[in-house]
Amino acid sequence: MIIIGIAGGTGSGKTTVVDKIISSLPAGEVAVMPQDNYYKDSSHVPPEDRQKINFDEPAAIEWTLLEEHIRQLRAGNSVEMPTYDYLTCTRCKETITVAPRDVVIVEGILVLSQPELRDMMDVRVFVDADADDRLIRVISRDCISRGRTPQMVIDRYQDVLKPMHEQYIAPSKRFADLIVPQGGNNSVAINLLTDYIYSRLRQR
Length: 204
Description:
The chain has helices at residues 14-24, 47-50, 63-74, 115-120, 131-145, 150-169, 187-203, and strands at 2-8, 30-34, 79-85, 90-98, 103-107, 123-127, 178-180. It is α/β, with parallel strands linked by helices and 204 residues long.
């Protein structure tokens, strides 16, 4: 099993990179573990206060559960991955069964910021993109899928996303084995990564 960590700022193109890796490998060979599925449950917090929670700092994630699930997959066991509702900011009752695969991708803005999680990874990738490009993507995504207005997204970017990116996400770039500039548009870097994955799989 090869465990790949893919980090990068919000809206940097991580999901695009992940999708291109999956499409380049045989069907059913990749399992994806999104960091966002492991947000701590906030159902105990009054609804009016949930929008004030900082979801871009490490404390918002249940890292111990994510790490345990990766250990279980590496041991050959399936896991029940949690799911998260962004509209209510609560963990859902439904889970997703994830079976062991030859390639496991751990994806999220903060996955390279955690030492124990980094140590589990065979390859560490940081997807980089200009701040303006990331903001445009975040506005488009959050207004469509998360019920926010453009002004709400801009305010959140200034108050939370930008400072958290500078404090936690950008510094984790130094732990990356491969940096992918221009996000999912960098076909050369993505091809290098998939070629490396193929070579590792052949060795095993």
